# Entry
Amino acid sequence: NAGVTQTPKFQVLKTGQSMTLQCAQDMNHEYMSWYRQDPGMGLRLIHYSVGAGITDQGEVPNGYNVSRSTTEDFPLRLLSAAPSQTSVYFCASSSRGTNEKLFFGSGTQLSVL
Amino acid sequence: GDSVTQMEGPVTLSEEAFLTINCTYTATGYPSLFWYVQYPGEGLQLLLKATKADDKGSNKGFEATYRKETTSFHLEKGSVQVSDSAVYFCALSASGTYKYIFGTGTRLKVLA
# Structure
């Protein structure tokens, strides 16, 4: 099992550029989510999805878009990157039920210059 | 709103020392509580969890007990190893939601 796969692992953008962070899981999990990790801030939820076609905002959604057209994929789009979006991004998934553990990808380190 | 507070790091210990990392939470209802661990360059992985009051989660020598009266879920290990060096996150999952709330993380460094 590959689990949760994120690409790319590293990315450098210039202010105003757009890009998509990819996330795929092969465990047939209904729930998928995106977090950003910043020093001293822990992990903050950006967007999440409880199934194909269903997405919702988390704690820090501004500047990010998501869609969920399949169960497996949950891409995160930055339409116009800003230096404040420099962070490490993690995708996570879990099976139905709020007490199930989260499976995390290995992360994407993004720098916006 | 719901929140998780954990002790500031870094925590530096010698091998075989006793470890405690404090975690307290604020939540309505009866959340599930978790400890996740992040090794360098990796994503987080579940270390242990507890789903109701007085439950004790345990794994790899680590333990934590869900204390509703003190709203705490402190992580303990009797004898740490160099390989335990990592960042530890306390988290809660509010009952009836999909949302997980994480603490800020505590970095542990164990010296040989």
In short: Chain B has a mean pLDDT of 93.
